[in-house]
């Protein structure tokens, strides 16, 4: 059990810097998910914790010990790789038990612990097989068993589910979560899949271009994204982001004028980006609210997503399955003020006043229970 | 479906294949038939009708003490040389594969000896390992004749084996480095996470995954040791089979017997025995070594 401290960590390859000073604390026993698009530096950060990449500048400490100069084996981490990285010439039992063999655990004890671990990950009947004779999900379990058997202080997962098919991914996700509850080791899980991130994380770290965009609980990040990047990256379909300006205490979105709470009076004249999630947009009576032209409709079964165009900008809305909309048809949307997000157009950062989101106090009060 | 183009006419494909066929016939099948023929006849070196003698050529060869000696040292040569060359190539490849600073330069350096012809390498080593000067002279100062390949047969044999290793280690190095680079990096990293150090990783992960390459090298290098033209060249440029037949490898003896002794028939018979020996060794390798090789 160990806390991970990441202090002003940078990474450069030659002249290109891929991590620009990352500061994070992962408390003991938490399940931390690092989420970001490919190339954002999330895997690099994980590999630096593991000891597979050198730390260009800054410090990483595991359980209070600075590990910058330690070999991977001295750091007490175990890692599950994206392609599983199973030893193809060894049986499942040898794969799982390799770490014990290296550390010189006697054969009898080794076998006992391998069997124990195999039982936990459900591989008891496959111990003699080679990895090539296993399915994707089974290989994944071998990889997890191999990481577990050393009873590591820290578990690292490098996009472990991305090679599995959709159905298996869901069940493995649940298994990883259960495993975490059982072992209670600090876990760091890297992914580009926001559903994995939302469902697994105690604490979510969103990264972009080598910087941390936002850290927090998944719901907190969903409801109060700190930047337009986070707002667009989390949530499916993505949040609508529309350029606008604060005029007369209100923002104008196409034909709709939405008054802001009095606390935002100071924003008068500022150019802003207004965000609203497609699932919080409602259909309005024809001729009122924001009018957009339907472009195409995505069927999801339980509902549908209308992709429309409003003054040249795309605008999406999730609507019930009972409404029929034909492409080319004008639709009126109602944008509830309490669900609006305001971002500074220049910096892309969220605009909050006194820690309050853009919406009215009443709306913030209804959100509060969900955040705590 | 893969698209295949089919030649309708018969003469066109034959025309395309003809140059290659001609070369094979001229430089392989014809000489092989000649050797088979000569092995069972007495071939006069300056022309004239050959006399069929049955197995007499083989009897003569097998009754020669020196021939059996030659077989012995050939086997020693073809085991020590290739195994050491592969081992050194493996160590070098493992080192270069770690991609430490300067590995590109060393990669170039290690491959270089392969570009040097056997006789030229032999010439160079005549000076490098000459007992009278340089490195070996320092050894001999400690104790006279500690190293003297001109005097001791065992030294001379070691001498030609060293040249073989020097030349072929670079060749095995290329193959093994290519093999190592196809081992997924994540496997090495997984082993590192499992607590395995560089040497342990090499033994537990990299070498087992290199088994197909190692086996290929074992077969080809042993064949090279028995019949390689460079093997002849190395002996020819250095010891010329001496002292006292100590380095008279089978392949050297065959060429020497045929073109110095003009005993074409005896040399042909020895060639056939040598081919048989290579077949036996290759069979042993496939029967006992290949079983332990896992292809993916």
Automatic annotation (TrEMBL), chain A:
Subcellular location as annotated: Cell inner membrane
UniProt similarity note: Belongs to the ABC transporter superfamily.
Alphabetical keyword list: ATP-binding, Cell inner membrane, Cell membrane, Membrane, Nucleotide-binding, Sugar transport, Translocase, Transport
A biological process term (GO) from this entry: carbohydrate transport
Chief localization: membrane
Protein name per UniProt: sn-glycerol-3-phosphate ABC transporter ATP-binding protein UgpC
A GO term for molecular function: ABC-type transporter activity
Topology class, membrane: Peripheral membrane protein
Domain ABC transporter: from-to ranges: 4-234
Organism field: Xaviernesmea rhizosphaerae
Domain of life of the source: Bacteria
InterPro entries to which the protein is assigned, alphabetical: AAA+_ATPase, ABC_transporter-like_ATP-bd, ABC_transporter-like_CS, ABC_transpr_MalK-like, ABC_transpr_MalK/UgpC-like, Mo/tungstate-bd_C_term_dom, NA-bd_OB-fold, OB_MalK-like
Gene3D superfamilies with a match to the protein in the record: 2.40.50.100, Nucleic acid-binding proteins, P-loop containing nucleotide triphosphate hydrolases
Pfam families according to UniProt: ABC_tran, OB_MalK
Cellular component terms (Gene Ontology): ATP-binding cassette (ABC) transporter complex, substrate-binding subunit-containing
Automatic annotation (TrEMBL), chain B:
Start and end residues of each ABC transmembrane type-1 domain: 71-285
Keyword check for Transcription regulation: no
Domain of life: Bacteria
One cellular component (GO) term of this entry: plasma membrane
Membrane-spanning segments: 12-32, 66-96, 108-129, 156-180, 201-222, 269-289
One matching Pfam family: BPD_transp_1
Location relative to the cell: Cell inner membrane; Cell membrane
Alphabetized InterPro entries for the sequence: MetI-like, MetI-like_sf, UgpAE/MalFG_permease
Membrane topology classification: Multi-pass membrane protein
Recorded coiled-coil stretches: none
GO process terms (BP): transmembrane transport
CDD domains hit by this protein: TM_PBP2
Keyword GTP-binding annotated: no
Keyword terms, alphabetized: Cell inner membrane, Cell membrane, Membrane, Transmembrane, Transmembrane helix, Transport
Self-association state and partner proteins as the record states: The complex is composed of two ATP-binding proteins (UgpC), two transmembrane proteins (UgpA and UgpE) and a solute-binding protein (UgpB).
Role summary: Part of the ABC transporter complex UgpBAEC involved in sn-glycerol-3-phosphate (G3P) import. Probably responsible for the translocation of the substrate across the membrane.
Stated family: Belongs to the binding-protein-dependent transport system permease family.
Protein name: sn-glycerol-3-phosphate transport system permease protein UgpA
Lineage: Bacteria, Pseudomonadati, Pseudomonadota, Alphaproteobacteria, Hyphomicrobiales
């Amino acid at each position: 059990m160990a806390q991970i401290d990441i202090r002003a960590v940078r990474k450069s390859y030659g002249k290109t810097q891929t991590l620009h000073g990352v500061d994070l604390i992962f408390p003991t026993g938490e399940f931390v998910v690092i989420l970001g698009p490919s190339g954002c530096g999330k895997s690099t950060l994980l590999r630096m914790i593991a000891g597979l990449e050198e730390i260009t500048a800054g410090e990483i400490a595991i359980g209070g010990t600075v590990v910058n100069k330690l070999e991977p084996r001295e750091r007490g981490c175990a890692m599950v790789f994206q392609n599983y990285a199973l030893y193809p010439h060894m049986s499942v039992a040898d794969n799982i038990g390799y770490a014990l063999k290296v550390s010189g655990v006697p054969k009898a004890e080794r076998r006992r612990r391998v069997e124990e671990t195999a039982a936990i990950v459900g591989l008891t009947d496959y111990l003699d097989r080679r990895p090539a004779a296993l399915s994707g999900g089974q290989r994944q379990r071998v990889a997890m068993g191999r990481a577990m058997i050393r009873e590591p202080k820290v578990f690292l997962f490098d996009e472990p589910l991305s090679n599995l098919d959709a159905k298996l991914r869901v069940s493995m996700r649940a298994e990883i979560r259960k495993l975490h509850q059982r072992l209670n080791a600090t876990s760091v899980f890297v992914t580009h899949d926001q559903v994995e991130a939302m469902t697994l994380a105690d604490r979510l770290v969103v990264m972009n271009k080598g910087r941390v965009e936002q850290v927090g609980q998944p719901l907190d990040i969903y409801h109060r994204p700190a930047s337009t990047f986070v707002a667009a990256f989390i949530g499916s379909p993505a949040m609508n982001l529309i350029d606008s300006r604060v005029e007369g205490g209100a923002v104008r979105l196409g034909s709709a004028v939405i008054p802001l709470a009095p606390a935002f009076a100071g924003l008068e004249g500022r150019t802003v980006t207004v965000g609203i999630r497609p699932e919080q947009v409602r259909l309005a009576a024809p001729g009122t609210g924001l009018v957009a032209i339907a472009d195409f409709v995505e069927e999801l079964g339980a509902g549908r997503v209308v992709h429309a165009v409003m003054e040249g900008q795309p605008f999406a809305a999730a609507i019930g399955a009972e409404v029929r909309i034909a492409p080319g048809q004008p639709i009126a949307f109602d944008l509830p003020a309490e669900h609006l997000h305001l971002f500074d157009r220049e910096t892309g950062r969220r605009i909050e006043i006194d820690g309050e989101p853009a919406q009215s106090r009443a709306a913030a009060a209804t959100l509060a229970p969900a955040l705590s | 479906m893969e698209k295949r183009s089919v030649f309708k006419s018969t003469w066109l494909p034959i025309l395309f294949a003809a140059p290659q066929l001609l070369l094979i016939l001229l430089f392989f099948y014809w000489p092989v038939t000649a050797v088979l023929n000569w092995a069972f006849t007495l071939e006069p070196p300056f022309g004239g009708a050959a006399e069929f003698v049955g197995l007499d050529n083989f009897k003569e060869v097998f009754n020669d003490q020196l021939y059996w000696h030659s077989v012995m040292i050939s086997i020693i040569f073809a085991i020590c040389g290739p195994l050491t060359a592969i081992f050194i190539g493996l160590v070098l490849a493992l080192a270069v594969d770690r991609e430490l600073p300067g590995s590109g330069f060393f990669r170039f350096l290690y491959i270089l000896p392969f570009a040097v012809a056997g006789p030229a390498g032999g010439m160079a080593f005549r000076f490098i390992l000459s007992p009278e000067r340089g490195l070996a002279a320092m050894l001999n100062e400690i104790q006279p004749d500690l190293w003297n390949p001109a005097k001791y047969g065992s030294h001379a044999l070691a001498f030609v084996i060293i040249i073989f290793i020097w030349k072929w280690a670079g060749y095995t190095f290329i193959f093994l480095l290519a093999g190592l680079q196809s081992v997924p990096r994540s496997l090495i990293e997984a082993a590192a996470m499992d607590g395995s150090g560089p040497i342990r990783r090499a033994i537990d992960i990299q070498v087992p995954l290199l088994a197909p390459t190692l086996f290929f090298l074992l077969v080809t290098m042993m064949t090279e040791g028995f019949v390689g033209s460079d093997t002849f060249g190395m002996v020819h440029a250095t010891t010329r089979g001496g002292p006292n037949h100590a380095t008279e490898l089978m392949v050297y003896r065959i060429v020497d017997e045929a073109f110095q002794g003009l005993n074409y028939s005896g040399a042909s018979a020895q060639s056939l025995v040598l081919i048989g020996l290579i077949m036996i060794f290759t069979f042993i390798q496939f029967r006992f070594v290949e079983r332990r090789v896992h292809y993916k």
